[in-house]
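Team,

Forwarding the record for the chain on the shared tracking sheet. I've put the sequence and predicted structure together so nobody has to dig through attachments.
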Amino acid sequence: MTLLEFFGCTLIAFGPPFSMFCLTVCKDPIRIIILISAAFFWLLALLFSSVVWFVVVPLRTVLIFGVIVSVILQESFRYLFYRLLKEAESGLQKVSEVGMEMPIVTNRVTLSYVAGLGFGIMSGAFSLVNVLADAIGPGTVGIRGDSPNFFIVSAFTTLAFILLHTFWGIIFFQALDSKNYLVFSYVLISHIVVSCLTLFNQKQLYAASLIPIYIITMITACVAFRSAGGSLNNVKQTIRRQN
């Protein structure tokens, strides 16, 4: 039973991101490099968050402080990664032009999507790996009166964060390119709100965290779609072509 729970939660959390990776990233070596680089920058954000948590001794027990600092550092390193890609744009252009129909550097939406997916996959891996290790046994949550929904809620929360990081990456890059700081602020605010909502899980108020998180995820998906230049007319035209 614990093995089934392990594979079920793993597929819930990482099944859609893995499909996204296989369909949109894995065939292009430049995209793979950018995804891995973005994941490394998320790791740097985690490292600096740990340093801040370790240095500010009186606030180590205040969980919300650590959450907010972590979010600010993650978005700061997302900005640094954006600046790095801007500086390396000419070099990437020369490399990606060889044997490619559409170089990734000329498609800013693709660039931001891959960077956001890299952030999301690394974030999801660190948030769920230890939980999955416990899910495999020898016991399971709920035997001693705890909620049996812990693992599946953690899996769905991880999936939401991976998707959110992907959407935030698109919104973030496009907002900086167009200097739309109102949309830019949405990324930071929504990231803080979603991260703080996870604090309800300490009291096993899973519905109070999971439902608002997925509502924000759907809203963010719509904002990312608009930021990428999408519209209802484009959707209708695509549906007509497929039919």
